[in-house]
Amino acid sequence: MLTQRNDYQQAYEPSYQANTMVQTFMAKVFSWMFLALAITAFTSYMFAGSESLMGLLVNTQTGSMSILGWVVMLAPLGFVFFISFKFQSMSKGMLTLLFLIFSVLMGMSLSFILLAYTAASVFSTFVVTSGTFGLMAVVGYTTKTDLTKFGSILMMGLIGIILASIVNMFLHSGTMEYVISFIGVLIFTGLTAYDVQKLKNIGMAAGPYQGAQMDKLSIMGALTLYLDFINLFLFLLRFMGNRR
């Protein structure tokens, strides 16, 4: 009986340790993500509600964007590429700083959208986005289906809607914009489940990574889910948002 109990412990403890490691890693990922979203939301609210702050981004006399406004609009994309390519060589402190600055810049950029849509429709869209994101996160974490093949299809679709959006900048087609938005919602809904499963697998294999390296991986995971959430919100806002 003692031998059977020891055999059970040997089989159970690695599984328990793996589950604990995954839960700890995912908790860090979502903590960083929620912090970034909170910073973005607060920054957006502050800029959208202050004429003096918005005056830094937009020339109030001509209605055109200032140099800072263009920087705010374009810098987040540059931050994403820079962080993605350089995070392994960065220190944890530098990666954390850049991630937080990125969150602020995104908040400043999204303040333009808060001015374009009513507060009620922005709030209702945020609630729907949160519910959809949460549901797909649970699906991605709990499903036994390997979503890798779906991830490849979704990434191809993402490239497609990026190219279609660039083309529509010149065509100004309302129908095409509607189709792009609909496909965008589907893509980022699927990517949420795919990315959560991918991060869960990273957490299971993260045994060799501890301390600062684990924290860096959790920040990168938070950046991935943050982008899924923001893009899902923006595409849903095109359907649900009421313009002022």
Can you give keywords for this protein?
244 residues; 0% strand; mainly alpha; 84% helix; disordered N terminus
Helices and strands, with pairings:
Elements: H1 2-48, H2 51-54, H3 67-86, H4 92-116, H5 119-142, H6 148-171, H7 174-204, H8 212-240
How is this structure best described in words?
With 244 residues, the chain is an all-alpha fold. The protein has one domain (2-240). It has helices spanning 2-48, 51-54, 67-86, 92-116, 119-142, 148-171, 174-204, 212-240. Helix 1 packs across helix 4 (92-116), helix 1 (2-48) packs antiparallel against helix 7 and helix 3 runs antiparallel to helix 4 (92-116). The longest helix is centred in the N-terminal third of the chain and has 47 residues, at 2-48. The protein is globular. Mean pLDDT is 87; it is low at 1-5 and 7-13.
Give me a quick take on this structure:
The protein is mainly alpha-helical. The protein has one domain.
Structural class of the secondary elements? mainly alpha
Mean pLDDT: 87
What general form does the structure show? globular
Instruction: Note the beta-strand portion.
Output: under 5%
Strand count, sense and closure of the main sheet? none
SSE pattern: HHHHHHHH
